[in-house]
Structures are given as structure tokens and as C-alpha cells.
Amino acid sequence: MTIFESVRVVSWEPPAVSEPMDVAVFGKAEGGGKAGTIAETGIGLASKYPQARRVSGGRALYLSPGLVCAHTHLYSALARGMMVDIAPSKDFAQQLEHLWWRLDRAIDPAILEASGLAGCADAAASGVTSLVDHHASPEWIDGSLSVLAEGIGEVGVRSVLCYETTDRNGEAGAKAGVRENERFAEEADTARMPRLLAGGAPLFAAMIGAHAPFTLEDGTLDALGALCKSSGRPLHVHVAEDKYDAVESRARRGLDPLVRLDRHGCLPEDSIVAHGLWLSPEEFDLLEERGAMLAHNARSNMNNAVGYQGALPSLRNWMLGTDGMGADVLEEFKFAFFKHKDSGGPLWPDAYLKALGRAGNFAARMLGVEALELVPGAPADLVHWDYPAPTALGADNLAGHLAFGLSSRHVKSVMVGGRFVIENKVPAYDAEALAARCAEAGDRLWKRMTDMERKA
User: Fold this and answer.
1) Long-range contacts of 340-343 (CB under 8 A, 24+ apart)
2) How far is CA 213 from its chain centroid?
3) Which 3 state secondary structure label does DSSP give 2?
């Protein structure tokens, strides 16, 4: 057992910051089936559990639930600083074709596993304990989600995975994408999927994945809708990230893209609609009516110059994602808030704090647990923060501290399922070996992309 002593326990939603207290966590072989969960919170727990390992607290030490990144692309983790000649792109559609669709075709199993390692190491270092990923590797689809899971599991964070089904590589590629989603969903339902500790939540869960509607034919949408229904899982899809997606759907199909998805059964409750910048007011109403979630990715939207998501003030169900630009959710929090204010929006930091809470609740539903909070019985997915706040910190101004102060540099330790992934800023995995492995895979990825361009 591990006891975090004299820490101030933080909750994102509703916002709360406790007085100093102790938090006890069951270890690997403890708790009678509750290993890896929160055992108890209170005062003086060391006397109750004298054999427990004690982690000291203090005025500057806080304990929070782990953060959740609600939309990312781990396959892009090795694109940082990429040295590959890319043809000039006049719009976002060409940027997809010249860069990202070229990158995902160059991915092989070893590159994918390294991408998972790199992306999850980045996530853990920033206090993220669960990732919702949207994967693509069209030259190698079958079994790809399991290999990605191996890289993620080596670091030790949780993830919700799917394959980005698309018709842009032909009918055979689309069918393979549907099959991979189905295969991994079945795998996630079996004992073959690892759990960090007996009694804890699974490391992995599955959604059903799809690329943007403009790359999906009706037959593929029918297959995806049927799979959502038969598997009981929601869809994870890009919609209206760029204006082209919305215009193409209305011109070619006579339907708004989200309406089209819904008519094919592809918008069940808890589906993730990433971006949604060019959705119509009626589509936002449909999103809320269906209980789907909007994943807002402010930095990616800014980087790609695709527009601003101005509908947030009117939406209930939205979360923060990074769209593959790292996994630092607190950095995303800051960018999202500042961009919103720069655009003349009315929201304050507390709205973004609520988004963190929604993401935690969403991840809990996907993983099949009641909550990812620091309460007895919940998985011990937590972050130990060393944050010497220069001013008072409480429930009323927690959001302001996240917007203007607290950041990933204040992460001291990260625990997932009662196991330290990072302890006193030292990873439990071999960070140096991981970095070398990822650097080699990154070089090979860039070379494959270059060779691919030469052959074209």
C-alpha cells in the first residue's frame, strides 16, 4: 500500500480543493480484488496501515485525478521536427494529402509501436493518465490497434482506441478498417486485454473509428453504424474540421455531414465528433440531442488555420483534445481559453475546468468504472503536483490557477492503477532507451516518406 500524506485533494468538476488529508492506495496484491484502487481517504492513515509506503506531502503538494486527453493521434508522435520535403499546400485538403496521408501510409508495426511509446511518455509527463486515440496506418491495418496497445502498455497509461476507417484507399481498405475496429472491440471484451492490476480498470477500451465524412461512402457508413449497434460502442470521427467537409456533404449528398452520419446509425450516445468547426446550428442541436461529445482541439485548429469553434458557449457536451499535437492537456486548456477570449468569447476558465471533468467522466464510462476520481473504490489514476502557489488556491479560483499558473512542469509523480508511471519526476520505464528507440523509428519513418514521394 502507498499513502500520500498531508496532500490537498483536487477535484475538477465540481471544483474542490480539500484541507490536507491522506490518500491510501491498494498495491498489487492487496485489497481482496481491489488492487490498484483508492483504499481510503482521511487523516492519520499511516497509523492504521503501519506497513504502507509513505509519500510525504506539504503546503505545495496537491493530488488530483489524472487528466484525460479526449482526442489525439498517437501515430503522429514521430512527426515532431520532421525533415521531409512536403509539397506546398493551398488548403487543408492538400495538406492532408501531401503530409498526413503520406505519413500514415509510411507506418509499419515497429514505427507504430514507437509512436505509441513516444506519445504516451509525453502524456504521462504532463499528468495525462488516459488517452482517446484515433489511429490510421492504411498500408498495415489488420492487428494495428493491438500493436499500438503494446507500446501504450509499455509506458503504462490507459487508452481508448479505434481505427480511422476511410474509403480514400479504396473499398478493400475501408472493409479492412471496419474489420480492425470489430476485431479490437472483441479483443477488448476478453481476458486477453491486460489490466494493470487485478481488480483495476482495463488498460484499454475500444470505440469504432471513422475518418471525415467526405472520405466515407454510404456503404461504409452503413457497416460502421451496424458495428456501433452490434458492439454497443460509440463512433469516434472527424467532422467539419475544414469547410470542405461540410460543403462537400451538402453539395454531393444534399445533407449536413452530421445528419448524414446520424441517418446511417453513426451517432450513438457518447460518440466523439472531433473539431466540428463548420457544423450548422441544426447539427449542434443534433449533437446534443444524441448525447454525443464534441472534442475541441484549439491548437490544431490554429495551426491548420481551419477556423474557430465559436459554439462552445451554447454546448453542454464538449471536451479538450490535442489532435496529435502532443498530449499536454493543461497547455491545451490555456490555449483554448486564450483563443476564446481573443475571439471575443464570453467563457471564463471555469468552463474549461468543467471540460476536464467531462473528459474524466467520459473515460470512466468507456473503461467501465464508476469514476476516475480520488474516492474509495475508484482506480488509483492520479497526479501528485508540486505547485508552490504564490496566492491562495481553493475551489473558487482553481480554474484561474490552471489558466495562469499550474502546468505540466509541476508534475511530481503520476500513478495509474496504483502503479507509479513517474515517481519524483523519474519514469518507471527506461526513458533513455525509449528515446533512442523512438529516434531510430522517427528517422526510418521520415526516410520511408521520402522514398514514397520519389516513387510517386
Assistant:
1) 340/298, 340/312, 343/308, 343/310
2) 21
3) strand
Q: Which of 303, 280, 325 is nearest to 71 (CA)?
A: 325
Nearest by Cα to 82 from 97, 108, 100:
100
Spell 397-421 as b/e; 16+ CB within 10 A means b. Answer: bbbbbbbebbbbebbbbbbbbbbbb
Radius of gyration of the chain (CA): 22
Q: Find all residues with CB under 8 Å of 362, minimum gap 6, and list them.
A: 68, 70, 132, 270, 293, 319
Architecture of the CATH domain 2-65+373-424:
Roll (2.30)
147-162 confidence digits (pLDDT tens): 998 888 889 999 999 9
67-367: CATH topology: TIM Barrel (3.20.20)
Spatial separation of the C-alpha atoms in residues 334 and 200, rounded to whole Å: 32
Cβ–Cβ under 8 Å, residues 241 and 277: yes
Residue 190 in contact with residue 206, Cβ under 8 Å? no
Mean pLDDT across the chain, nearest whole number?
91
Environment class of 251 (CB within 10 Å of its CB; exposed 0-12, middle 13-18, buried 19+): exposed
Q: Which residues pair with 159 in a beta bridge?
A: 131, 204
pTM exceeding the 0.85 threshold for the entire prediction? yes
| Domain extents in the chain | 2-65+373-424, 67-367
Alpha carbon separation from 64 to 360, 373, 413 (Å, rounded): 11, 8, 11
Residue 44: CB atoms within 10 A of its CB come to 9
Min mean pLDDT across 244-248, 308-312, 314-318 is at 244-248
Residue 22 confidence (pLDDT): 96
Pairing of strands 2-11, 53-55: parallel
Cα 426 to Cα 26, 127, 129, 188: the distances in Å are 21, 13, 16, 30
For residue 382, the cross-strand partners are 65, 415
Please classify residue 31 by burial: count the beta carbons closer than 10 Å to its beta carbon, then call 0-12 exposed, 13-18 middle and 19+ buried.
buried
